């Protein structure tokens, strides 16, 4: 959901028309309930909804109906949001056509101004170009922001579908109940991989650190110093742990 002043837009991604309608109606019910509890209302007459997608798939979403405050929202194929006309195919055609109409009106004024002095004609030409360029730049900026918002939503959805990483508990050989008896760290045949089918970063590492003993780990870049410390703290899932 995004808000700009008193304008609000929320997005939902779904492949099934039934699931899309159910989710959006549930969101609308939650929003109208929150507005009612805070003594606010949703202007249903100005609220629109639009389904975006490819031409072949949009035909499956023709029967979607959204309701807010017991009133059905109007379904549109294009909508002006923050100065940019967005259509259901997410193309620039409608916005460019609007700019062409604006430019045509200004050119008509410019044609009439040519009958006046050259100074008025030059001034009119400068204003016409400036207004057209400013409008186009604003449209490009807003379209880029809308695309960024949708990309952010897609990233969040993608992150929710990532397989959960394993926990920090070792299931191969858990510590004894009376562990630790001594301040000693001993590792035998320690191996480490950062992902399931990855290369072994550490392989058959053996060492012992006695109580009150201080050691230093020295090596060139990429030798595995940080990986060894990460394995000691179980940050990635090590292949072997021995206590």
From TrEMBL:
Question: What sequence ranges are listed for the domain ABC transporter?
Answer: 202-237
Question: What is the membrane topology noted in the UniProt record heading this document?
Answer: Multi-pass membrane protein
PANTHER family membership: ATP-BINDING CASSETTE SUB-FAMILY C, MULTIDRUG RESISTANCE-ASSOCIATED PROTEIN LETHAL(2)03659
Instruction: Extract the GO molecular function terms from the UniProt entry.
Output: ATP binding; ATP hydrolysis activity; ATPase-coupled transmembrane transporter activity
UniProt-recorded name of the protein: Reverse transcriptase domain-containing protein
**Keyword Transport, does the record have it?**
no
UniProt family annotation: Belongs to the ABC transporter superfamily. ABCC family. Conjugate transporter (TC 3.A.1.208) subfamily.
Its subcellular locations are:
Membrane
Q: GO CC annotations?
A: membrane
Q: Which residues form the Reverse transcriptase domain?
A: 2-86
Q: Which domain of life is it from?
A: Eukaryota
Q: Which UniProt keywords apply?
A: ATP-binding, Nucleotide-binding
Query: Primary place of residence?
Result: membrane
What is the species of this protein? Pocillopora damicornis (Cauliflower coral)
Instruction: Indicate whether ATP-binding appears among the record's keywords.
Output: yes
């Amino acid at each position: 959901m995004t808000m700009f002043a008193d304008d609000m837009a929320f997005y939902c991604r779904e492949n099934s028309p039934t699931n899309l309608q159910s989710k959006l109606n549930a969101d609308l019910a939650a929003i109208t309930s929150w507005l009612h509890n805070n003594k606010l209302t949703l202007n249903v007459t100005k609220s629109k909804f639009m389904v975006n997608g490819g031409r072949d798939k949009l035909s499956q979403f023709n029967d979607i109906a959204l309701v807010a405050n017991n009133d059905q929202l109007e379904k549109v194929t294009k909508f002006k949001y923050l100065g940019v006309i967005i259509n259901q195919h997410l193309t620039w055609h409608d916005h460019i056509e609007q700019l062409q109409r604006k430019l045509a009106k200004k050119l008509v004024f410019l044609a009439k101004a040519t009958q006046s002095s050259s100074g008025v004609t030059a001034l009119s030409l400068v204003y016409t170009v400036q207004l057209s360029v400013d409008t186009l730049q604003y449209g490009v900026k807003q379209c880029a922001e809308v695309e960024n918002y949708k990309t952010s939503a897609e990233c969040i959805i993608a992150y929710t579908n990532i397989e959960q990483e394993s926990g920090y508990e070792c299931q191969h050989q858990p510590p004894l109940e009376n562990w630790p008896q001594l301040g000693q760290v001993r590792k035998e045949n320690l191996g480490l991989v950062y992902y399931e089918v990855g290369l072994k970063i550490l392989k058959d590492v053996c060492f012992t650190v006695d109580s009150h003993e201080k050691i230093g780990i020295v090596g060139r870049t990429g030798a595995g110093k940080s990986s060894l410390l990460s394995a000691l703290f179980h940050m990635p899932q090590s292949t072997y742990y021995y206590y």
